[in-house]
C-alpha cells in the first residue's frame, strides 16, 4: 500500500501541517476581531490585543444594545427576515410543485420553466429596477426589500428537483383518495420534504439577514434601515479615517471595540444557523454542479 | 369508473396555473418590467416625464460609455479583477481539495471543512469590516509586518495595485472553502478500481494523483472554468463597494459600482441604464456561449 512508504508518510505529515496552518490562518482574523470586541479601550486602540481579550469588558456590547437606532434596525431585520422567509417559502413551494410535474401531466410546464429561467440569464439591471420600485410607490417601504426577493428561481429549481425524487405512487394514492392537488402538496409532499424546506428556509434567512444594498437605495430614511444596512454605514463608510496613511488620525479608533462588537453581532445569527445549514448545503451545491 | 374520473380530474391543470400565478405576477413585476424599463437607456429619461414622454436619443448613451474617460477604464478594471478572481478562485479550491482528499482522519477533515466553509455565509459587510480592521495602518497585519520586517506601515487599501491584489486574495479567502465542495464530490466519484490497479502496478501516490486523480476531475474543472467565463463582467459589487474609496477608483472601480454612483447617486438614470444594459447584453452572450462550450467540450447540461 502506498501509504506505508516512508516518503508518503513524510509527505502526509507535511500535508496535514499545511492544511492545519492554512485553516488556522483563515479564522485568526475573525478571532482577533472577536477578542477586540471584548477588550478595554486602551489595549485595543494601542493594538495590544491579539487573540485573547485584554482588560476583559462587555462595554462595547452594552453600548451597542443601549443604542436605540441599533435596536430599531435589529427589529426591522427580524421583521424583514420573518416575512421574507415565510412568504418566500410559500411561493417556492407553490411554484416548485407544478413545475416538478412531467410534461404529460402538465403540458405548459416547459413554458413556465423558461419564463422563470430567462430571469436568471438576463435582467434589467440596477437603474430600471430602481425606476420600477419607484413607480410602484414602494420606496421607503419594507416591502421594497421583500417583494422583489420572493421569487428565487434557484431555490425553486432545488425544490422541484427534490419533489421529482418523491415516488409518484404517493401522489397517485392521494389523488385516488380524492385529494386535490393543493391538498396533495400540503399533506403529502410537504411533510416528506421537510428537511429540504428547512434548509432552503435557512438559506433564505441568511440571504435576507445579510442583504444591505436594497435598504441603502430604496430606503432614504436611516431610521427604517435593516441592521445590515446600518452596519454597512457604520463599519464601512466611516472607516476611511483609519485607512489614511496618517498614524495621527486616531480620533476614530477609540470606538474600534464598538465596531468589532457590531461586526460580531451582525454575524451572530449566521453563526448560529451555520451548523444546521452545514448538514445540508453540501448536497444542494452538488445537485447544482455535479450532475450525472 | 371512479378511478377513471379521478385520473381525469388530475389532468385538469388549471390548479397548477393558479399555483403559479403569484410567482408569475411577481416575476412580471420585478424581473420583466425592469427589462422593459431598459427603453430608458435609449431615452433621455426624466422621472417626471416617464417612459412615454421622455425624448428619444438613440444610442447616444452607449456611445458616451466609450467616449468618456472612465468608461473603458471601468470595463477594463472589471475584466482584470474578475479575470484574476476566476483563475485564483479555481486553482485554490482545487489544490486544497486535492490535499484534503488525502486526509484519512475523518475528524480532522470535518473540522477543517467546517471552518473553511464558514466565511462563505458571512456577508461582505461583515467580512469587509474585518478586513478594514486588520488591514488599516494601525491594524494587526501592519503591526506584524512592522515588527517582523522593520518596514513602514503599508496602506493596503489606498494603493490601486495593492487594492486589486487584496480584492483577489480576500475573495479567495472567503470562497475557496466553499469551492472545494464541488471538487471533493468529484474526487469521491473517481472509480476506486483505477487506484487499485495502479497500486498493483506499483504506482506511487504522486503518480496516482498525476495520472488518475487529475485527469478524472479535469472535466469538472473545464466546466467550472467555462461557466465562470460567462460571469466575467461580475466582479462582485458587494465586495468592491465595501472596500474601495475614491483614492483607488482608477484601478478598483468596476461596472456595477460605477453604475450605482453615476446612475443612482448622480441621478444620470439613462446613462446608468445604458451601462447596465451593456453589461447585461454582453453577459448574456457570454453565458450562452459558455453553456454551449461546456456542452460541447464536457457534455454538461444544467437542466
Automatic annotation (TrEMBL), chain A:
Broad class of where this protein is predominantly found: membrane
Cellular compartment(s): Cell membrane
Domain ABC transmembrane type-1: 70-277
Topological category with respect to the lipid bilayer: Multi-pass membrane protein
InterPro entries: MetI-like (IPR000515), MetI-like_sf (IPR035906)
Keyword check for Transmembrane helix: yes
Transmembrane segments: 12-35, 81-99, 111-133, 139-163, 184-205, 257-277
Keywords of this entry: Cell membrane, Membrane, Transmembrane, Transmembrane helix, Transport
UniProt cross-references to Gene3D superfamilies, sorted A to Z: MetI-like
Source species, domain of life: Bacteria
Keyword hit for Transferase: no
Protein family according to the UniProt entry: Belongs to the binding-protein-dependent transport system permease family.
Protein name from the UniProt record: Carbohydrate ABC transporter permease
UniProt source species: Cohnella silvisoli
Amino acid at each position: 500500500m502506498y501509504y506505508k512508504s516512508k516518503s508518503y508518510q513524510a509527505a502526509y505529515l507535511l500535508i496535514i501541517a499545511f492544511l492545519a496552518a492554512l485553516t488556522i490562518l483563515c479564522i485568526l482574523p475573525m478571532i482577533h476581531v472577536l477578542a477586540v470586541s471584548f477588550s478595554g479601550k486602551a489595549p485595543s486602540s494601542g493594538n495590544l490585543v491579539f487573540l485573547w481579550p485584554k482588560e476583559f469588558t462587555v462595554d462595547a456590547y452594552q453600548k451597542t444594545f443601549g443604542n436605540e437606532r441599533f435596536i430599531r434596525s435589529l427589529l426591522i431585520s427580524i421583521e424583514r427576515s420573518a416575512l421574507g422567509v415565510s412568504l418566500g417559502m410559500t411561493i417556492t413551494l407553490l411554484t416548485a410543485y407544478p413545475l416538478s410535474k412531467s410534461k404529460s401531466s402538465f403540458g405548459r410546464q416547459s413554458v413556465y420553466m423558461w419564463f422563470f429561467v430567462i430571469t436568471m440569464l438576463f435582467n434589467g439591471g440596477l437603474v430600471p429596477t430602481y425606476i420600477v420600485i419607484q413607480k410602484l410607490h414602494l420606496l421607503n417601504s419594507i416591502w421594497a426589500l421583500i417583494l422583489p426577493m420572493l421569487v428565487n428561481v434557484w431555490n425553486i429549481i432545488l425544490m422541484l428537483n427534490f419533489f421529482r425524487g418523491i415516488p409518484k405512487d404517493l401522489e397517485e394514492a392521494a389523488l385516488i383518495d380524492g385529494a386535490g392537488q393543493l391538498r396533495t402538496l400540503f399533506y403529502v409532499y410537504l411533510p416528506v420534504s421537510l428537511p429540504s424546506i428547512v434548509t432552503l428556509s435557512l438559506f433564505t434567512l441568511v440571504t435576507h439577514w445579510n442583504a444591505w444594498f436594497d435598504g441603502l437605495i430604496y430606503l432614504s430614511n436611516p431610521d427604517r434601515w435593516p441592521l445590515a444596512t446600518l452596519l454597512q454605514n457604520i463599519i464601512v463608510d466611516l472607516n476611511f479615517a483609519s485607512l489614511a496613511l496618517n498614524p495621527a488620525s486616531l480620533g476614530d479608533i477609540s470606538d474600534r471595540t464598538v465596531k468589532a462588537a457590531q461586526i460580531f453581532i451582525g454575524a451572530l445569527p449566521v453563526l448560529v444557523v451555520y451548523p444546521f445549514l452545514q448538514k445540508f448545503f453540501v448536497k444542494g451545491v452538488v445537485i447544482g454542479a455535479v450532475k450525472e | 369508473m371512479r378511478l377513471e374520473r379521478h385520473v381525469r380530474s388530475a389532468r385538469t391543470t388549471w390548479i397548477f396555473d393558479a399555483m403559479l400565478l403569484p410567482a408569475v405576477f411577481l416575476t412580471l413585476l420585478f424581473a420583466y418590467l425592469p427589462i422593459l424599463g431598459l427603453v430608458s437607456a435609449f431615452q433621455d429619461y426624466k422621472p417626471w416625464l416617464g417612459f412615454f414622454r421622455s425624448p428619444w436619443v438613440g444610442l447616444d448613451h452607449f456611445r458616451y460609455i466609450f467616449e468618456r474617460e472612465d468608461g473603458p477604464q471601468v470595463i477594463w478594471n472589471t475584466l482584470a479583477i474578475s479575470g484574476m478572481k476566476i483563475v485564483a478562485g479555481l486553482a485554490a479550491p482545487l489544490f486544497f481539495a486535492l490535499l484534503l482528499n488525502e486526509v484519512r482522519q475523518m475528524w480532522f477533515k470535518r473540522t477543517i471543512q467546517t471552518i473553511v466553509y464558514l466565511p462563505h455565509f458571512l456577508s461582505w459587510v461583515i467580512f469587509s469590516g474585518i478586513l478594514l480592521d486588520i488591514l488599516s495602518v494601525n491594524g494587526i497585519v501592519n503591526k506584524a509586518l512592522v515588527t517582523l520586517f522593520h518596514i513602514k506601515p503599508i496602506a493596503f487599501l489606498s494603493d490601486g495595485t495593492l487594492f486589486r491584489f487584496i480584492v483577489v486574495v480576500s475573495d479567495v479567502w472567503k470562497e475557496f472553502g466553499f469551492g472545494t465542495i464541488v471538487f471533493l464530490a468529484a474526487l469521491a466519484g473517481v472509480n476506486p478500481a483505477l487506484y487499485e490497479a495502479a497500486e498493483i502496478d506499483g504506482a506511487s501516490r504522486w503518480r496516482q494523483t498525476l495520472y488518475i486523480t487529475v485527469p478524472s476531475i479535469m472535466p469538472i474543472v473545464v466546466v467550472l472554468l467555462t461557466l465562470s467565463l460567462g460571469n466575467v463582467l461580475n466582479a462582485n459589487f458587494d465586495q468592491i463597494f465595501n472596500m474601495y474609496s475614491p483614492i483607488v477608483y482608477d484601478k478598483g472601480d468596476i461596472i456595477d459600482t460605477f453604475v450605482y454612483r453615476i446612475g443612482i447617486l448622480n441621478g444620470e438614470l439613462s446613462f446608468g441604464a445604458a451601462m447596465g444594459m451593456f453589461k447585461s447584453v454582453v453577459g448574456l452572450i457570454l453565458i450562452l456561449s459558455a453553456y454551449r462550450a461546456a456542452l460541447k467540450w464536457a457534455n454538461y447540461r444544467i437542466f
